[in-house]
Amino acid sequence: MPAPGLFRRLFEALRHGPFTRSSRSDATLPAMTSSSTTTTDRDATRARLDEHLDGLAGQRLLIGLDVDGTLVDHDGAMTPSLHHVLQRAAESHTVVIATGRSLGATLPIVEAAGITRGYAVCSNGAVTVEMDPQADGGYRVIDTQIFQPGHALRTLREVAPDAHYAVEMADGTFRSTAGFQDASFGVEAIESDLDDLMGLEAVRVVVHVPDLSPQEFSEVVAQSGVHGVEYSIGWTAWLDMAAPGISKASALEVLREKLAIDSAHTVAVGDGFNDVEMLTWAGAGVAMGQAPQGVKDVADVVTDSIYEDGTVLVLEKLLA
Q1: What strands lie across the sheet with 266-270, from one edge to the other?
Q2: What pTM value is reported for the model?
Q3: Cα(15)–Cα(180) distance, rounded to whole angstroms?
């Protein structure tokens, strides 16, 4: 059985600010309930997965797995079934945890999952680590992608003056404007003025406008004309920016080439808009059942939701 309490303690320790992604989770993901999926529905899901994943079992695979909504629910809980099959998958294939969370918020998930070897792509592709029990802390950072966010921040300030900003730096520390803390940072951010943030080198910049819907925020971003950075807008009015061309997919491709794994033998599973590039990059892209329609549309196949252990069905098929 995993230890979701590790992540939950981190979550609660950081969730003291009024402007957090976690504070609005009730509006984005339903509470965990017992599955009402019928056997016929389960069989139908397995049939879809068989059609798209058939032939991959027995191959040397690279499997990219999103975290929130794919491996854990919004309380940070992983089911025993998923914990068991995830460990089996990590023993047989190259499993890569691929998340928008910082390294500090990713490591508790990796620890709870019991994964001691493999890779983790953090901060939407800006930071990549190799898990190694012999390394200090059980991991080593093997890649970081930095950029200068000053121009983008100045531009966004003009069109979204009430936004909150946080900058993640290559050493894993965060600096943020007043009152902006989030569990995804993995550490408590150091409060800083926006003018100071503009001069930093970043691996990721987080922008949050608490009073706007994702649709309204999308319009604001479009109006801002922000360019030179890649961004994804998630379940709430939340913007993650990284260096040009950087995404979960770009980091996974670097690993694929490093490990000499055939591109046809790559699988990705996710549920958010920051997973779109990863799902289209993979030889087989799998969307979770609760994913927005826009995410499902780019996937090759849709599995069951996080609440019905949809990721378990995918991994079981790959281990068959």
Answers
A1: 139-144, 127-131, 118-122, 94-98, 62-65, 266-270, 284-287, 301-302
A2: 0.85
A3: 10
